[in-house]
Amino acid sequence: MRDKYADQLRQVEAEITSRWGEGRINPTRQRITMLLDLLGDPQRAYRAIHLTGTNGKTSTARMTDELLRGFGVRTGRFTSPHLSKINERVVVDGAPVDDRTFVDAYRELAPFVELVDGQNDIALSFFEVMVALAYSIFADTPIDVAVVEVGLGGEWDATNVIDAEVAVVTPIGLDHVEYLGPDVATIAREKSGIIKADAIAVLAAQPPSAAEQLIRRAATVGASVAREGLEFGVLDRSIAVGGQLVTFQGLGGVYSDVFLPLHGAHQAENAACALAAVEAFFGAGAASGPIDLDTVRSAFAAVRSPGRLEAVRASPTVLIDSAHNPAGMTASVEAIAEAFDFRRLVAVVATLADKDVNAMLTILEPILDEVVVSQNSSRRALAAQDLAELAREVFGPDRVTVHARLDDAIDAAITLAEQTDDEILSGSGVLITGSVVTAGEARVLLGAP
Questions:
Q1: pTM summary value
Q2: Which residues sit opposite 254 in a β-bridge?
Q3: Is 113 exposed, middle or buried (0-12, 13-18, 19+ CB in 10 A)?
Q4: For the segment 148-182, what is each residue's pLDDT rounded down to a tens digit?
Q5: 310-445: CATH topology
Q6: What's the rounded Cα separation, in Å, for the pair 301 and 289?
Q7: Nearest alpha-carbon partner for 174 in 165, 166, 164, 184
Q8: What is the dihedral of CA 424, 406, 364, 304, to 10 degrees?
Q9: Could you name the CATH architecture of 2-301?
Q10: Residue 123: how many other CB atoms lie within 10 Å
Q11: CA nearest to 277, candidates 205, 201, 221, 367
């Protein structure tokens, strides 16, 4: 039975991915609204926390989910893209839905998709179908609250047919400028569209131009605002084995000595946003006091974020990281410098063509001894030889190796890391980065769980 549904899942995935891709915005929610209306508006069957931003959305969604479940709330989580398997996008009670649930839900959805396609000049996109699928599964399960990450942007994103009572905006920077706008203020204006009337907007620390747009939106629709650095934030943190020990200022009070098994200041800040979102969801504040500290500690200790500075082997240490824009790469580089004492570090880099690749390579250069450039399987991938030309300009030709196949690139990087004396080998590492697609394919190749 498992093999039968695995085969059917591959067929379903092929059907969905044959539609136009998620890497663009068509500024209308007409099609997704029509589809969900035919389905009886499943997104209205549960409460919701909605997340947008440029970096940190998926990690923050995972932490929010873990905290809610720690308090006995039944959750559904929708994130994108997936690392290894399409089911990862639709999670119920902390686990991706199984192949049978995914396939059966799609088969029930398909006739309605065909009906909506026939009534519109532009067919439903891959992402719109995935949103409807997730919202339907959540309603059928049923769940208490959905934790939903936008696909791209905010106002016109297909997920934005929910009226979430908590809207989380992680740090905003320049990414997808061809779709979202040429500057941070324009991008923030699009992302602010998830903030709804009477909601609570939980805002990570933002560039001033982004903060202005977000606060203006909140004032316009009558939403409350909780800001990192003012109403909540990270009070203290220290490096710990396998992660960090953090003290948070929450909306309801101080949460001390919370172990977070993730690396980097950015993950502590993501955790602060997740905690504030859950406090807001439960109505916690200065008057009511903090939510239960032991539950918070247990939930954060259980958090995992695959593909985010994830160590998948030792001697040499191999890290997989999905940084795919300059802001994300900066956060990852700072976290590596803080949490790891590498004396020799080799990177495998494979990126998408529409990213600011030169900036990412420039950020990586100071911490790397050598770089192996490669190519992932995405249709948007930057060709290995084109990436090599950019890398040689940043690193010099002697520090750049090219392997078009990702498996060959990983093997080459491990070999380069191992070509040292025993003393250095104990402090050598391999970093595989540049794209979520690269991270996902590397996890499969290296057998990560």
A1: 0.92
A2: 249
A3: buried
A4: 999 988 899 999 999 999 999 999 976 655 556 66
A5: Protein-Tyrosine Phosphatase; Chain A (3.90.190)
A6: 22
A7: 184
A8: -80
A9: 3-Layer(aba) Sandwich (3.40)
A10: 15
A11: 201
